[in-house]
Amino acid sequence: xxxxxxDVTTTxxxxxxxxxxxxxxxxxxxxxxxxxxWTLAGSEAYAVPLPLAQPEEAxxxxxxxxxxxxxxxxxxxxxxxxxxxxxxxxxxxxRTGELRLGTVDAEEGLRVRLLAPCPDxxxxxxxxxxxxxxxxxxxxxxxxxxxxxxxxxCSGGVWLDRAGRMLALDRELEGTVKAVAVDLGRGGEVSPxxxxxxxxxxxxxxxxxxxxxxxxRSDAPGEPRLGWGVLGSTxxxxxxxxxxxxEEATPFAVQPxxxxxxxxCGVALRVGEAGLALWRPADRYVxxxxxxxxxxxxxxxxxxxxxxxLPYATPEAPCGILGTTLPAAPPPPVHLDxxxxxxxxxxxxxxxxxxxxxxxxx
Length: 362
Prior knowledge:
It is globular and about 60 Å long. The chain is an all-beta fold. It has 1 helix and 26 strands.
């Protein structure tokens, strides 16, 4: 892999469709912003601008669908408006078509944002949160409607299955943040997901719906730490020492398809402002790498075959993808210490009963 020092040329969010076919971002400078769609499925990535007669506001959000359309969320007067943008290909007239979907009233104190791409690739959802209640809206791929109401202020948003039915949210309720699972197929039924300690703040950062690998941030070990577990496993959450960074680290991509071996999933993390780290739970070793110049927003996508695709944009290459793989971990050191046999392994403990003094040292 050829790498160089990272020079992040934009902080605008860059979102990749769930199947890696398309991506989207808000491009432009100053007040001249417009949606831009990247096509990633061919032999070479290319970008298609989707401008309208009026420039987009800098705080607009975009999300690509697998059919090539781009969902946009705008704040318009006292409403949050949602629409689909697509290239028309017409020889005359506007180059961008627009299909308006619906609006959400902008009540005082309401924060509205798009959720991560839905696993089915065509539906899209938004989170509308106040201090006391959060509403999940379906804004594309079906009727424009509320699909769940959750008591408390929710953030995050991670899909737990391939059907787009189970959604994990980080819910703040009575001063504590806990990740909960919301069943959109049962009217938004809420159930606990993370309960590492009674008073700990437990957030879900990323999940692999195939193998159930969960990437977690919790202060249960005494300070905010990155940890991992497996959905449905009887083993406790583990907080490896190799995931302790001086800078803030956030996982942004996990390798799919490892149904029977979640510990072998590759995980990519953004470290600090522009650092890149690669890791898999089975190795307990982190590779610190440089990323491509112009890496976009600390984003990327793993393939099931274990290849990580990183998008970048520079003046010389305005639309590019760097592909890399996770190197093999070095072999563990050999200790020839004739010490007494180790004690028997502790009994597996359900996630919510995890013995944190042991987990923090794993």
